[in-house]
Design a protein that fits this description.
Elements: H1 3-8, H2 23-33, E1 45-49, H3 53-74, H4 102-105, E2 112-119, H5 142-154, E3 158-162, H6 169-176, E4 182-191
Antiparallel strand pairs: 1-2, 2-4, 3-4
Helix pairs in contact: 2-5, 3-6
This protein binds flavin mononucleotide.
Length: 221
């Protein structure tokens, strides 16, 4: 598979066959992903391969709570956890209805669960002093995550990048032994797909690309 095809057809996989992912394959995926770019080439990522059943179940409990909250807020027409999703009286309050999740329901059985942490001291947050939420730091860890998913796909595996655990970082820090100054960036779920979605719904280039200014004319190529 060439790079363009892989980029255009790597949809999220949340249901996996029972085929295990052996350590050699998992290592090879991470060995590909480590070539991802990062600010200053500081490579601040850390990876935990979560094998222990009780740790998985505990992580799953936290993910489920965040998932339920996310769905409940989105159901009101808001964009859950966005900068505009401020905690006002209209926001749904707990308890939230429990919503099934293929991933969380099967967290014990997902072939590979990887928690991706990042050493915050290694991130040059170019936007940290602006009067808005900083986003640039993530760019030093998410390419690593995406490279892992692309590598997995090239090896016949599928997976999904999730972020719901980040909302529970303080609660899971001791469970995972998260070092000081580190943040949880993502949890990757990997395995052999029950079905690999390849037809992805994405906006066309001219819907998000303009010439000279963000209010310029559409760039149509
Ligand atoms: C930053 C980020 C966070 C995400 N968080 C979650 C998540 O918490 N749970 C989940 O099931 N999927 C998560 N996803 C997967 C997205 O839902 C998925 O990429 C998107 O819906 C596009 O779907 P597709 O890949 O099947 O086309 C996340 C993806 C990204 C890039």
């Amino acid at each position: 598979m060439d790079a363009s095809e892989a980029l255009r057809s790597t949809g999220s996989v949340r249901r996996f066959t029972e085929q295990p992912v052996d350590d050699e394959t998992l290592h090879a995926i991470l060995d590909d992903a480590r070539f991802a770019p990062s600010g200053g080439n500081r490579q601040g990522w850390r990876v935990v391969v979560v094998r222990d059943r009780s740790i998985r179940l505990e992580l799953g409990r936290h993910m489920q709570a965040v998932w339920d909250e996310y769905i409940a807020i989105n159901a009101t027409g808001r964009t859950a956890f966005s900068v505009t999703d401020i905690n006002d009286a209209e926001r749904p309050q707990p308890p939230y209805a429990s919503v099934p999740s293929d991933l969380v329901d099967a967290i014990e059985h997902v072939p590979a669960v990887l928690v991706i942490g990042v050493d915050m001291r290694q991130l040059a947050l170019m936007d940290k002093d602006l009067n808005r939420t900083a986003i640039v730091g993530g760019a030093s860890v998410y390419p690593f995550c995406w490279s892992a998913l692309l590598s997995a796909r090239s090896r016949g595996l599928g997976g999904v990048l999730t972020t719901f655990l980040a909302r529970r970082e303080p609660s899971v820090a001791s469970l995972l032994g998260l070092p000081e100054h580190h943040a949880i960036a993502a949890t990757l779920f990997l395995g052999y797909p029950e079905h690999q979605p390849t037809k992805l719904r994405r906006r066309p280039v001219d819907a998000f690309t303009t010439v000279d200014r963000f209010d310029g004319s559409a760039f149509t190529g």
